[in-house]
Design goal:
- The relative contact order is 0.12.
- This protein is α+β, with helices and mostly antiparallel strands.
- Helix content is 39%, strand content 12%.
Length: 299
């Protein structure tokens, strides 16, 4: 009679621990729990802590993916795309420090792109950005439209703050000005009133996209000059074709200009311009382009 075969009493979690040790080397000397789910969570915690430790020891730019190995999109297709990306995905997600500039006339813009992308280790993916944030390190993004470029960064440790110390601005104190737009991070105003409750202040910071003060003053002066020198149809067409997307603060500014234009026309006995000339919906835009943009010739 054959001898009975000894049963393997390690269980599934025991086999799992042995398999993971074979794949990953020396795991922490800690018993896995009875179920495989808890064991997998323990592995994830150990792996994450190891990666955080490695990120903290590395200088920004070391061990990152090169420009040829990973695609990083930074060429904006339009002013509207540039503003949308900066407001929604950069300033709105904690990138509050910035440096902006222009590519000098006669200089290759792609050379400037390569220099800044490589210098500040911009080309990293979302998981790596998360690990850097957990380790107290800053992250940097880069974007360019034609000859205007912008670097934005989150709080934390990064050589960006050392190299650009004299040029860095805080979007909470100084707005990003771009082609007549002004982008800043400001305290919220008032929340929507609920039934039976008094209105409350919004304690959160909100991204505000509006027409810059200088451009707004010029627009208002121009429209007030045309108020009694053009027909209502021509003034309406000029409002409709303004190159500003109708973010809420922009709409408020344009409605104020329209109010003053109509007041001046009413005093002169002319017909009013309808408020429907103000756009309330943003046009869909493609933020980035895959191919290299053709730069306008410098004057």
């Amino acid at each position: 009679m054959a001898a009975p075969v000894a049963k393997d009493r390690r269980g599934f979690s025991g086999h799992l621990q042995e398999a993971l040790a074979a794949c990953f080397g020396n795991l922490p000397k800690k018993d896995f729990r009875k179920d495989a789910k808890s064991g997998f969570r323990e592995l994830c915690r150990w792996t994450n802590n190891s990666l955080l430790a490695e990120s903290a020891q590395c200088e920004p730019g070391q061990g990152e993916t090169s420009m040829e190995e990973k695609e990083y999109r930074y060429l904006a297709t339009s002013m509207a795309g540039f503003v949308k990306q900066v407001a929604s995905n950069y300033v709105g997600k904690g990138y509050v420090y910035f440096v902006q500039g222009q590519v000098p006339a006669g200089k290759d813009a792609t050379a400037v792109d390569r220099k800044l992308l490589s210098l500040y280790a911009v080309q990293i993916d979302s998981p790596e950005r998360w690990r850097r944030k957990q380790a107290g390190l800053a992250n940097v993004h880069y974007i360019r439209f034609e000859r205007d470029w912008l670097l934005v960064a989150t709080p934390g440790k990064h050589k960006f703050f050392e190299r650009e110390s004299g040029s860095i601005r805080d979007v909470r104190e100084c707005p990003i000005k771009f082609h007549g737009y002004s982008i800043r991070l400001a305290p919220g105003q008032w929340k929507k009133k609920e039934d039976g409750k008094p209105r409350e202040r919004d304690s959160k910071s909100r991204v505000r996209v509006q027409i810059s003060k200088d451009r707004y003053r010029k627009l208002k002066a121009e429209f007030l000059h045309l108020a009694t020198h053009r027909t209502a149809e021509k003034i309406a067409a000029k409002f409709w074709t303004l190159p500003f997307e109708p973010y809420a603060p922009v709409r408020k500014q344009l409605l104020e200009i329209l109010r003053q234009v109509n007041a001046k026309r009413k005093k002169a006995g002319y017909s009013q311009v309808s408020p429907s000339v103000i756009r309330y919906r943003q046009r869909p835009v493609k933020v980035f382009q895959a191919e290299r943009a053709e730069l306008p010739k410098a004057a």
